[in-house]
Amino acid sequence: MEPYAKPSEERTILIADDEADITELLRLFLEREHYRVLEASSGREAWNLLQRERIDLAVIDIMMPELDGYQLIARIREKLRLPVIILSARSGDVDKVTGLGLGADDFISKPFSPIEVVARIKAQLRRFYDLKGAEPLRAAEPLRTLNGPLVLDHEACVLYKRGVTITLGPLEYKLLKLLMEAPGRIFTKRQIYESVWNEPYLEDSNTVMVQISRLRDKLEDDPREPQFLITVKGLGYKLSAEDAL
């Protein structure tokens, strides 16, 4: 049996861009093709719409207030399965590699042709739904852990900080994963050691302190004034909660 292909007028496209003239232009061209269009002027507004509405494809700008495009894409890939197209004036190779590495399906540079954008949207919808017979699904397990500007990719075992890739060693990844899964919680040296190294903790061991220092060098803008990985004197270590960053 042929997979059911939803007609275009039943497809919902989200445009997330803080430039109103761009969203209005794309809305005009998409509605001519009988798509339903939703608009968001910030990443947070877009995320709220994605949680409330049945959206089939998202067109996302990188530079948006509240939640930037990279963070929004990472959050989408953690919770939802739908095609994502980046539409951005930041068209350097690093921006493209970062966006596609976070899970975007396509990248279109500004300035753009609205006809080309519509064509690429159609191609992604066809590839994602009509050829697969799929619908947006909740991911079985999170592929990424988020905390403000930090995105930890569990498949590649790398960290993205404000969209910049930071390579982690195996122990650094395991340590950061432990902390990011419980932001704000204080972990003792014993808890960290036994979770990360998976062996009994030796009271005189400096191993945890050394690994914390190495991770802090990669994580912090200024390791001498840490904003993310905090030492709680006499207790242990914690990762700052998202609302404290």
UniProtKB/TrEMBL annotation:
UniProt-recorded Gene Ontology molecular function terms: phosphorelay response regulator activity; transcription cis-regulatory region binding
PROSITE patterns named in the record: OMPR_PHOB, RESPONSE_REGULATORY
One Gene Ontology biological process: regulation of DNA-templated transcription
Entries under CDD domains matching the protein: REC_OmpR, trans_reg_C
Cell compartments where the protein resides: Cytoplasm
InterPro entries registered for this protein in UniProt: CheY-like_superfamily, OmpR/PhoB-type_DNA-bd, Sig_transdc_resp-reg_receiver, WalR-like, WH-like_DNA-bd_sf
Keywords tagged on the record: DNA-binding, Phosphoprotein, Transcription, Transcription regulation, Two-component regulatory system
GO cellular component: cytosol; protein-DNA complex
Protein name in the entry: Two component transcriptional regulator, winged helix family
Taxonomic source organism: Paenibacillus lactis 154
Classification lineage: Bacteria, Bacillati, Bacillota, Bacilli, Bacillales
